[in-house]
Amino acid sequence: MTGLPQGLDGNIAGSELFAPNLERRHLVGKIFSTLCLIGTSLGLILLAVLLSRTFVQATTHLNWGFISSYPSQMNPSAAGIRSPLLGSLCILVYTILFSVPVGVGAAVYLEEYAPQNRFTKLLELNIANLAGVPSVVYGILGLGLFVRLMGLGRVVLAGSLTMALVILPVIIVAAREAIRAVPKSLREASYGLGATKWQTVWNHVLPNAIPGILTGVIIAVSRAIGDSASLLIIGALTFITFDPKFLEWGGLTSQFTVLPLQIFFWIGLPQEAFKELAASGIIVLMVLLLSLNAIAIIIRNKYSHLN
Amino acid sequence: MLSSTEPQVATISQSVLDAQDVNVYYGSYLAVDGVNMSIPKNKVTALIGPSGCGKSTMLRCFNRMNDLVASARVTGKILYHGQNLYEGGIDPVEVRRRIGIVFQKPNPFPKSVFENIAFGPRINGFKGDKTDLAELVEQSLRQAALWDEVKDKLQDSGLALSGGQQQRLCIARTLAVKPDVVLMDEPCSALDPISTRRIEELIEELKKNYTIAIVTHNMQQAARVSDMTAFFNAEIDESGERVGRLVEFARTEQIFNHPSKKATQEYVSGHFG
User: How far, in Å, CA of B167 to CA of B100, rounded?
Assistant: First the structure.
């Protein structure tokens, strides 16, 4: 590297005050960026190893027959994931239907309507804590409340209500953040034109918060789709050879199983063939998760294109 | 100390808004103390003064925007055509439709130009059909001297306009709900000199049909656009707290050429603030 020339008087301006030490400063910068790169690659390498192992194991089963057949305990080569896949989708749809309106409603109330006092502060703290409670605890609650006390039984309704409880705090926290991030100037503009609180919230606050709310929903749904502990507790079966009965109450009263439970069950069996089935199940679960995220991202972009 | 602001202005025309002994508190902190002033019809009234003198706070009292600040409390009366705006039973939503406001930073909605204007009429129960609404949008944009620039991009985002255009869009949006008074809170402080000049010309034009109150940091602007000027100052009260008071309220030429208070004289001649 060539240095800059000296000034007209033969001195470097400021040289009596500063020791530039450029090599050292740049070296520190390089070390830091290398550390960051290592961090990133560690995560990526682990993911790649995990995925490639799973893919290798899964190849023999990844075909339409695997998707469309029911699980079998006797014949691994004919076994599929039809019922757990439908069960997962079913639970997921109802979980979203139950938790998103309640969660967004709670967030709107807390942000826009509730007075700011000690009680709401306490409430806020509690919701944030609930987001960190293990799902198995919600499973116990669901078992006591929905399955036993309300007498719903071990059905999709009880499962999706329990799952809704698991992700509700995540949705509330994310929706509150999103609502809070809507600039004050936008609200003022709306109120300044003679809009009521409702008109302001509905026309400006919510539409502008939707991208943020959806991000929260994506995170929450990703948690829900991979969660097995809560559903295991409330008694989702691990061996189901029928579809949810959509014609009766939209499947809400059907017994069910879900993909993570099926995978868990298969991995527990001694034969190698079932482990391959489990690997294939993992791939399907992952594709399902990615496509759900993609849908949410498309909706999010659609809503934020004007901003 | 005596209340420093006896009504000092000879009425030069019918007044639309009259502030009587207005105090504004934020929690227990007194931000604006004992303001008496009136906003005359079809004139431009400027509120000037150094930072923290309460001029913006005062402006926001005129259409109850301060209601949105949880800790804000207003005592005294603000009469709008004789009716106290702070009386129980007065709905701030209706107040703000009649007394519109334009803010310091242009804040168009993240929607199309058309929707920016149409929102106000819609939420206020506009009785006309689609064609009437389109006419109202055009009329409002023409009034704000923006029509020629945006008539071909009514469906584009309001945020795609330049800063000056955005501010005129905000003015058009305010005009679309047919207010009686337009409050402007430093409407040019985020704009370049050319955009500022356009807004000033617009204010001159608008006062034929509207009553305007404008807060400005820019004394030349107050001198250029206003008929009446209220000079606010941040004073230190007995307990050492800063409090905003109206020092002098008079015709603009008098404030700038023959102010009766020393503080006014010092401020308008650029000695502080």
Answer: 14
* Pairwise CB contact (< 8 Å): A194 & B101: no
- CB contacts of B124 in chain A (<8 Å) are 193-194
Residue located via tokens 């999706």: A160
Q: Which residues of A18-27 are buried (b: 16+ CB within 10 A; e: fewer)?
A: eeeeeeeeee
Handedness of CA B13, B18, B20, B23 (dihedral sign): negative
**Residues forming a β-bridge with B74:** B24
Give A190's contacts in chain B (Cβ within 8 Å): 109, 119
The DSSP element (H or E) to which B255 belongs, if any, is helix B252-257
**3-state DSSP call for residue A16?**
coil
Computed over every residue of chain A, the mean pLDDT equals 87
Q: Which residues sit opposite B78 in a β-bridge? A: B19
How many residues are listed for chain A in this entry? Answer: 307
Q: Cα torsion at B139, B141, B147, B151 (round to 10°)?
A: -90
Taking CA atoms, B172 is separated from B84, B134, B165, in Å, by 28, 13, 10
DSSP state of B65: G
CA distance A177 to chain B (A): 19
Does this model's pTM top 0.95? My answer is no
**CB neighbours of B142 closer than 8 A, spacing ≥ 6?**
none
pLDDT for position A72: 77
Residue (of A42, A43, A39) closest to A31 by Cα position: A39
Burial of B206 (0-12, 13-18, 19+ CB in 10 A): buried
In a mutagenesis test of the B interface, which of A116, A193, A201, A205 is the best target, namely the one with the most B β-carbons within 10 Å? A193
Please write the tens of the pLDDT for every residue from A291-303. Answer: 888 888 888 788 7
Pairing of strands B29-40, B15-26: antiparallel
